[in-house]
Design goal:
Layout (H helix, E strand, L loop, with lengths): L17 E2 L15 E6 L7 H12 L8 E3 L11 H10 L4 E4 L2 H8 L7 E5 L18 E5 L6 H11 L5 E7 L5 H13 L3 E7 L5 H10 L5 E3 L3 H4 L4 H13 L3 E3 L2 H5 L4 E2 L4 H25 L10 H12 L6 E2 L8
Parallel strand pairs: 2-3, 2-4, 4-5, 5-6, 7-8, 7-9, 9-10, 10-11
Antiparallel strand pairs: 1-6, 11-12
Helix pairs in contact: 1-10, 2-3, 4-5, 6-8
Length: 334
């Protein structure tokens, strides 16, 4: 499979514009101690994103089976049993927990204000999970993707990639996608002379039928809006999406480039493996602070980031060009 790099396109930033913290440098681990790490994420344990996170932890001196233990049970976490999973994880009292998206982070936040949480949501400030990007406060830090802001860009790219399409669909999560966002997408499509039909999906059991309904309605391309419901690579939900899209033979664009590499028409957004590596660095910092708290009476988790370091991180990302991944083996005539 081959992919094209469209140099005329650039991302604003790697993480969609915001990261809540950035560690200064690798810190020495406490000799002889084993650190315990919990997860409450939709991705499988052996997914490329999670493997990238463990690789980054290894580079920073945290090696599973040596000085790092992983609390099992929190991978491929769906919303159905989230409360029980979160309660069991907090009871296990790990040194830190990696969680995402908003729903798992909020479930953990309701149960603990002391265990460090590293989340990944669309906008941690707007969702009320942290006080600010530079100084999150409390026990939560992480990455704000701001990926819904790219839904419109993905729509424009989809229209360009399938120039004959006169009617496309926005596949939305009915529990998270706000009405004003859908209205903005419809207005943007009209300005391009293209009709936009919105298909709202209420849960995993509705994914296949929604794609079939879009096909039956005569849409010619699909824009899967930013949400873990559709797009987390390696999840059962994403496998269902990919199988149905292939069956109905509709070109589709997603928020993660990895989905295009797996066979979709296109992906436009940060690489999910990059976001997991970033959170691994945050985990290293927070685990170090937890260790220090035992000796020095506690420290503010904000020490893992500052406005100066955050701005430096953003400046580094602004200089980076990104790749719009397009599957050239897709049956769609580009």
């Amino acid at each position: 499979m081959q992919f094209a790099q469209l140099k005329r396109r650039e991302f604003i930033t790697l993480l969609g514009g915001a990261a809540a913290a950035w560690p200064v440098a690798a810190r020495a681990q406490e000799a002889g101690r084993t650190y315990r790490l919990g997860f409450l994420v939709p991705t499988p344990r052996q997914s490329p994103a999670v493997l990238a996170l463990f690789d980054e932890l290894r580079l920073n001196g945290f090696i599973e089976g040596q000085n790092l233990d992983v609390i099992l049970g929190g991978f491929e976490a769906g919303n159905e049993h989230l409360a029980e999973l979160a309660a069991a994880l907090v009871k296990a009292a790990p040194d830190a927990i990696l969680a995402g998206s908003e729903v798992p982070v909020r479930a953990l936040q309701s149960l603990t204000r002391t265990i460090p949480l590293v989340g990944m949501t669309e906008d941690m400030v707007a969702e009320g999970l942290v006080a600010s990007l530079a100084r999150p406060g409390g026990n939560i830090t992480g990455v704000s993707l701001l990926s819904p802001e790219l839904d419109g860009k993905r729509q424009d790219l989809l229209i360009e990639a399938v120039p004959g399409a006169r009617r496309i669909a926005a596949m939305a999560d009915s529990k998270t996608t706000p009405l004003h966002h859908l209205q903005a997408l419809q207005q943007g499509a009209r300005s391009r002379g293209v009709g936009l039909a919105v298909f709202e999906v209420g849960g995993p059991q509705e994914i296949a039928s929604a794609i079939d309904a879009a096909k039956a309605a005569g849409v010619e391309a699909l824009n899967f809006l930013a949400t873990p419901l559709f797009s987390a690579p390696g999840t059962q939900n994403n496998r269902v999406v990919m199988e149905r899209v292939t069956t109905v033979r509709l070109p589709a664009i997603f928020q993660w480039p990895e989905i295009a590499e797996a066979g979709a028409l296109a992906g436009y957004g940060p690489r999910i493996t990059d976001t997991y590596r970033q959170r691994a660095r945050m985990l290293e910092c927070l685990i170090d602070l937890t260790r220090s708290a035992h000796h020095y009476g506690g420290r503010d988790f904000d020490a893992c980031g500052s406005a100066r370091k955050l701005n430096l991180f953003k400046e580094q990302l602004l200089r980076r060009k990104r790749t719009w991944r397009v599957d050239r083996d897709n049956d769609v005539d580009l």
